[in-house]
Design brief:
The chain is of the alpha/beta class and 400 residues long. The protein has helices spanning 20-33, 43-53, 62-65, 72-78, 98-105, 119-126, 138-146, 190-195, 199-219, 240-250, 264-268, 271-283, 302-305, 315-320, 325-340, 353-361, 378-389, and strands at residues 12-16, 36-40, 57-60, 84-89, 109-114, 150-160, 165-178, 182-184, 225-229, 258-263, 287-293, 310-313, 344-347, 366-367. Helix 1 crosses helix 6 (119-126). The structure holds ligand C2E and magnesium ion (2 copies). One magnesium ion binds at residues 291-292, 312, 314-315, 348.
Length: 400
């Protein structure tokens, strides 16, 4: 099963699985993304490939792979494996959650996938782990804009109640579908766009495609909110609020359906200029969310000095809820604080059921995370929504 691809490639994926179809499917998907791939279908091969191939990422089904005598995860943990780990399995086989694995074995788990593996879930797990040997350039980014290589993925945001949740909005997340590298995630090109004056063009694209999509869905009777991330660099355009209102109106989308998300660092750049633009947006009914709250530049005063309507708890806190009592306390405190300030509170990074239940118990309004759904293309999301519209646990879409 050893790969013939040279091990010196910067992206080396070792797939450890006993199922030949999974090995074949995952290899093909990973190679298309630019990984050199090696496979191991038994424990001896796992040992050999870890030493020979020095993988940068390991995709492993720990349950299928371990025997009574050998626990594959324990073995990797003892070797102080630095590769990013993606675990796969089916719920019935009792797969541990990523936080449980990191606690038990000292391994960093970057994603957990249900079997049978699907292309988009596998690409979403592998894509962010891809180290590009060559960074993308400004010229490539300009070309990408001209050639229509940008696309938007949407992640559902749900409203929580005691019994379950229902989809109330979607967050637009930018992707670059590069002909050679595959999907490139925003962390790799937003800064580049900001440095070279391209961020307005990217944001216009996301706003335009998102608002058009919401307008189409409005006509189908689906009233969903849309959240779009805004860069701090855009807070120089005082006419932004007027342009936004006109644009929403021309697509039959109510201002209340749009929320603009900014990060704490963005809000700090030019407090007075930012305040004026944010106040204009709010006065037109557009929502404003303080994104990634609780990390970095946390400043509680921003929550009342700037006219926010929502606060989003950073995903790193959401991801820690199940295993860290302090994370649960922080979430409760932010929910209480937000509510006292008249803000709705959304928690990101909800990856398992325990986290969701904690959020329901503490009265958090909204949640987003891989447990509910990963970001996906609009057609896939429409499918996803339809499939859940009649389900018992997930009541029909918000009526307004
Ligand atoms: P963000 O706005 O905080 O978006 C949430 C990020 O967390 C997204 O990453 C999403 O895919 C990821 N995520 C969602 N649920 C989970 C989960 O349960 N677990 C984990 N581990 N991650 C989760 P993505 O799409 O890579 O975006 C990263 C950041 O890039 C965004 O963070 C946002 O700040 C920025 N960004 C995305 N699109 C745009 C855009 O159009 N304009 C600007 N200026 N920034 C953007
Ligand atoms: Mg955001
Ligand atoms: Mg965030």
């Amino acid at each position: 099963m050893a790969s013939t691809i040279p091990a010196r490639s910067a992206n080396r994926l070792l797939i450890a699985d006993t199922d030949p179809e999974t090995l074949w499917f995952a290899s093909r998907t990973a190679e298309k993304l630019g990984f050199a791939v090696a496979c191991a279908s038994n424990e001896a091969q796992l040992r050999e490939e870890v030493a020979r191939f020095a993988p940068t990422v390991i995709l492993i089904d720990p349950v299928a792979f371990s025997t009574q005598e050998v626990d594959a995860l324990r073995w990797l943990g003892e070797r102080r494996q630095h590769a990013a780990l993606i675990v796969s399995g089916s719920a019935e086989t009792g797969l541990l959650s990523p936080p449980e694995i990191s606690m038990a074995y000292g391994l960093e788990v970057s994603a957990s996938l249900n079997k049978p593996l699907g292309t988009s879930a596998l690409e979403a797990a592998l894509g962010p782990r891809l180290i590009r040997t060559r960074r993308v350039t400004e010229i490539e980014l300009r070309r990408a804009i001209d050639r229509g290589q940008l696309c938007t993925h949407y992640q559902p945001k749900v409203q929580l109640d005691r019994d379950g949740w229902r989809v109330c909005a979607i967050e637009a997340l930018l992707r670059w579908d590069h002909p050679e590298y595959g999907l490139i995630y925003p962390d790799e090109f937003i800064e580049l766009a900001e440095e070279h004056g391209l961020i307005a063009a990217l944001t216009d694209y996301v706003l335009q495609s998102g608002i058009e999509q919401i307008g189409d869905w409005n006509r189908l009777g689906w009233k969903l909110g849309l959240s779009v991330n805004l860069s701090a660099k855009l807070f120089t355009d005082v006419d932004f609020a007027d342009r936004m209102s006109d644009f929403l109106f021309s697509h039959g989308v109510a201002p209340e359906q749009l929320t603009l998300e900014i990060t704490e660092s963005a809000a700090l750049v030019d407090p007075s200029g930012t305040l004026e633009i944010l106040a204009r947006l709010r006065s037109r009914g557009i929502g404003l969310a303080l994104d990634d709250f609780g990390i970095g530049y946390s400043s509680l005063t921003q929550l009342y000095k700037l006219p926010f309507s929502e606060v989003k708890i950073d995903k790193t806190i959401g991801m820690e809820i199940p295993q860290t009592p302090a994370a649960r306390m922080i979430v409760r405190a932010i929910v209480d604080l937000g509510h006292h300030l008249g803000l709705t509170v959304c928690c990101e990074g909800v990856e398992n059921r325990v986290a969701l239940e904690v959020l329901q118990q503490c009265g958090c309004d909204h949640a987003q995370g891989y447990l509910i759904a990963r970001p996906m293309a609009a057609e896939d999301l429409a499918h996803w929504i339809r499939a859940r519209a009649n389900s018992h646990r997930v009541p029909a879409l918000a009526a307004s």
